[in-house]
Amino acid sequence: MTKRILVRCPTTAKLTPTGQTVEEELWNTTKLRTHKVTCAHCAKVHSWTKKDVVLAR
Ligand SMILES: [Zn+2]
Which one in 1, 10, 20, 44 has a CA-CA gap of 20 to 30 Å to 35? Predict the structure, then answer.
């Protein structure tokens, strides 16, 4: 199942979509570098890593 990759905004504590998706079955073995997302909630750029991610439908 394809999941959307969300990260939690450190400023507002809201979930922010990164615009990326991942197959849930592959997530545990997926290696990610640090990514950046322009936050929809506070308009800042946040760096995120795999441990920050929430998967959503
Ligand atoms: Zn934010």
Answer: 1
20 alpha carbon to ligand 1 midpoint, in Å?
Answer: 17
Single pTM value for the model: 0.86
Each residue's pLDDT tens digit, 23-45 = 999 999 988 888 999 999 999 99
44 CA to middle of ligand 1, Å?
6
Contacts of 27 (CB under 8 A, 6+ apart): 3, 55
Domain span at 12: 2-55
Query: Which residues, by Cβ under 5 Å, contact ligand 1, an ion?
Result: 9, 11, 39, 41-42
**How many domains are there within the chain?**
1
